[in-house]
Amino acid sequence: MNKLSVVLLLAVAILLLTAMTLVVVPYRQFAAISKEEGLADYTTLQQEGRDQYVSLGCVYCHSQQPRDPGFAPDGERGWGRPSTPGDYAYDYPHQLGTMRTGPDLFNVGARLPEANWHYAHLYQPRSLVPHSVMPSYPFLFERKEQAAPGDVVVKVPGSPTTGVLVARHEAKALVAYLQSLDHTYPSTFIDKLANEESKK
Amino acid sequence: MNGTVLRLVLFTFLTGMASLITLIALLSRDRKSFGPAAARVIFEGKEEGQVEEPASPSTLSALASAAGTHKNSTVLKGGGLSDEELEDRVRADQSSKKPVLWFLLSAVFWLAFGSILGLIVSLKLTFPDWLVSHAAVTFGRLRPLHLNLVIYGWASMAGMASTLWLIPRLAHRPLVQPNFAVAGAVLWNAGVLLGTVSLFVGVTDGVEWLEYPFGVDLILVVAGALTGVPILTTLAKRKAPHLYVSAWYLGAALLWFPILFGVANAPRLHFGVEHAVVNWWFAHNVLGLWLTPFGLGIAYYLIPKVLGRPVHSYGLSMVGFWSLAIFYSQVGMHHLIGGPVPTWLITVSIVHSVMMFLPVLAVAINHHSTMFGRFSALKHSPVLRFAVVGSMMYTFTSFQGSLESLRVVNRLTHFTHFTVAHAHFGAYGFVSFELFAAAYFLLPRLLGREWTKPAWISIHFWTTLSGILIYGIGLSIGGILQGRAMLDASKPFMTSVLVTIPWLHARTVGGLLMTIGHLVFAANIVRMVVGERVKTSLPRAEVAS
Predict the structure, then answer these.
(1) pLDDT in tens, B379-395
(2) Per the CB < 8 Å rule, is B251 touching A68?
(3) Which helix (H) or strand (E) holds B296?
(4) Other C-beta atoms within 10 Å of A132: how many?
(5) Strands A164-167 and A153-154, bridge-based pairing
(6) For chain A, which end, N or C, has fewer CB atoms within 10 Å of the first or last residue's CB respectively?
(7) How far is the C-alpha of A159 from the C-alpha of A128, rounded, in Å?
(8) Per the CB < 8 Å rule, is B128 touching A126?
(9) Neighbouring C-alpha atoms within 13 Å toward the C-beta of A104
(10) How many CA atoms does the CB half-sphere of A94 hold within 13 Å?
(11) Are B51 and B378 in contact (CB under 8 A)?
């Protein structure tokens, strides 16, 4: 047992065996779960917005996984029903998150459907939520003398009124993604589990 | 929990225990190489009973009497080695000079850069309108940059530097083919640099701990493989009668890392929640099976070597190694407790997180019993101070981690700053402190020079120790308050933000202290390498005063 090759071989074998439990078996189990029927794929703009969400690192403060009411009061906070694997069918890379410096966003589109709220909040979070610690994202906007046709003009409470504040394409995409975060449809997965439970 | 889940969990648990018992039974049959004699393999010639502290030659006699080694407390000429043995030792110690300097100097640069970014990130949470004019400096970009710089730039590179230097000592022969590792260091730097630029501009894989784009991942894997060549060849051609436990940890980590990194980064393989599962399988294993082995490998060598006495129980160190491999590799899912993940999977991880008590206890008994009754030695040895504090942090943070995996605790601490504090106790308080110890021990031996500013080492120690304590304790309190507020649905969400603010300021103070310590550490190393050359610290010159 004191041979280098034996020690290293065993060490590698242990990792590969345990990866069977933690990686391979779950892979097969998740692959067998079909997407939630109420879930729609992202539009091009929403997907672009999701890429912005990933690139700006929103996941470091916001989770996307409401938990079971028996475990934590996420539902009472208006964050939605517990999420199921089928809710994430179009999500790559995953953005489940491990931090709630800010609230869970899995159903933010249902909770805050107003586009202008999101624009103003991204431009200056403290204009809508006093004492918020979220960074402001002024680089997603530009200030113009006059709005051009097709421009989204953003009204920020308490902001100076010289010229107009216009959302850049990145902001439009990001807000479209945030609005798309709505998983309030009934879950076929949860229904199925409940059915199986009642049969026993 | 239903019957199937229970059976599955029981099955993995019993398999783990059975394999551990089988391994230990196999080990104990070979008493010669696993008894106390094997623990003495780190001592050559008459070294046992001799303290070794290259970082502070002037306090050797005081250290020797404080260490109260069982033979005697006089310091022998040449540290107990004959002239011939000493020549061999010096040759081995300096054989890794080029790659170790490459790895260590780069690591220290990335540490300084990474900690300054960490400090900025901490300030951004309390001054959210500071540095917001460009996406490159927004919180969500700088935070992963900090993590990747300190994990892949600092800890991984300093870990490989320590490994490259320790392997010749453990193998009792000079390093074979060091130039492979030099190439590895150059390439690893290229990877970290490219990764850093790409995260600044927002090109990211978007998954925590795995942000570097695939091209960068490939560079790191090739660089790691190149570095592994001299390490594994030297071990294979060893002259030492027994392969000391440190070599087990360091060697195994070198093989574990590419498996973890490769599986987790495989492009287009993962999807949805499965991606999250692989994410946390990787992220927890990279701590447990990559960074922890560096820390433990170093501590298992340095604590007994500085004191001149073997570890308390060598058999126990073997139990610790195998149980770490079996249990640590299955704990990652506790990061997804409460998430959309099957109960059986979470439960497997919780069970093994609790089983981690075993390897941690094995290491704790070994390290702390070796020190027991000799704590006054800490006064005279800067290396021992870093190594022993690091080892205490390991015990603390591991027990804390096991508790955090329990649902009742996790409910409170998950999604809060408490986890961030815990991660810093582990990756910083434990791993980085061991890496600091190794740097102070190896550089004088590598270069044949002395640390000319002992006060700077003290400043480094006290700033970083007070820094991590303020950071860790402050943020833990903040995290608990945050968790309590979040669980109370009658309170608005904003309450859970407001209660953390004072503790976020405390974190900044702690981070500032650590950053100051790192700059002093970096300056001291630069002095050592390019500054005044005082050539006195070879063991040859350490004659009893």
Answers:
(1) 999 999 999 999 999 99
(2) no
(3) helix B292-307
(4) 17
(5) antiparallel
(6) C
(7) 11
(8) yes
(9) 27
(10) 30
(11) no
Check pLDDT > 50 for residue B540.
no
Q: Retrieve residue B328's tokens.
A: 């640590």
Q: What is the pLDDT of residue B545?
A: 30
Q: Is the peptide bond before A93 cis (omega within 30 degrees of 0)?
A: yes
Per CB-CB distance under 8 Å, the chain B contacts of A134 are: 128
Question: Are the beta carbons of B345 and A98 separated by less than 8 Å?
Answer: no
- Is the CB of residue B282 less than 8 Å from the CB of residue B333? no
Q: Give B86-91's long-range contacts (Cβ < 8 A, gap of 24+).
A: B86/B539, B86/B540, B88/B172, B89/B44, B89/B539, B90/B448, B90/B538, B90/B539, B90/B540, B91/B174
Candidates B90, B164, B177, B103; CA nearest to B444 is B90
Cα separation, B136 vs B202, whole angstroms: 7
How many other β-carbons are positioned within 10 Å of the β-carbon of residue B488?
12
State how far the alpha carbon of A108 is from the alpha carbons of A74, A75, A125, A178, B498, in Å: 13, 12, 15, 7, 21
Q: Which residues contact B77 (CB under 8 A, 6 or more apart)?
A: B540, B542, B543, B544
Provide the terminal-to-terminal Cα distance of chain B, rounded to the nearest Å.
68
- C-alpha distances in angstroms, B53 versus A142, A198, B72, B83, B305? 61, 69, 17, 19, 9
Question: Which chain B residues are Cβ-neighbours of A135 within 8 angstroms?
Answer: 124, 128-129, 132, 138-140
Compute the distance between CA of residue B363 and CA of residue B357 in angstroms, rounded to an integer: 10
Q: What is the maximum alpha-carbon separation in chain B?
A: 76
Looking at B136-177, list the stretches that DSSP marks H as alpha helix, in order from N- to C-terminal side.
Answer: 139-148, 156-171
Give SS3 for B415.
strand
Task: Count A/B contacts: CB-CB distance under 8 Å.
Answer: 228
The distance of B230 to chain A (nearest Cα, Å) reads 14
The tokens for B222 are 């090739």
User: Looking at beta carbons, which residues of chain A come within 8 Å of B272?
Assistant: 30, 85, 88-89, 91-92, 94
DSSP letters along B475-536, please?
Answer: HHHHHHHHHHHHH-TTS-HHHHHHTTHHHHHHHHHHHHHHHHHHHHHHHHHHHHHHS-----
| Helical segments of B150-213, H only | 156-171, 178-200
Answer whether residue B238 shows pLDDT above 50. Answer: yes
Minimal Cβ distance to B342: which of A29, A63, A92: A29
Disruptive mutation site among A7, A20, A30, A129 for chain B (greatest number of B CBs within 10 Å): A30
Structure tokens at B322: 């195998």
CB contact (8 A) between residue A61 and residue B12: no
Contacts of A87 in chain B (CB under 8 A): 340
Which domains are seen in chain B, by residue range?
A: 14-538 (1.20.210.10)
Only one residue has tokens 């040449």, namely B78
A137: nearest Cα among A164, A109, A171: A171
B382 CB burial (10 A radius; 0-12, 13-18, 19+): buried
pLDDT, position B11:
83
Quote the tokens at residue B516. Answer: 């100051």
Could you read off the pLDDT of A171-194 as tens digits, one per residue?
999 999 999 999 999 999 988 888
The nearest alpha carbon in chain A to B420 belongs to: A99
Smallest Cα distance from A79 to chain B, Å: 11
**Inter-chain contact A23–B263, Cβ cutoff 8 Å?**
yes
pLDDT at B541: 40
Instruction: Of B87-101, B306-320, B412-426, give the lowest mean pLDDT range.
Output: B306-320
A74 vs A97: CA distance, rounded Å? 15
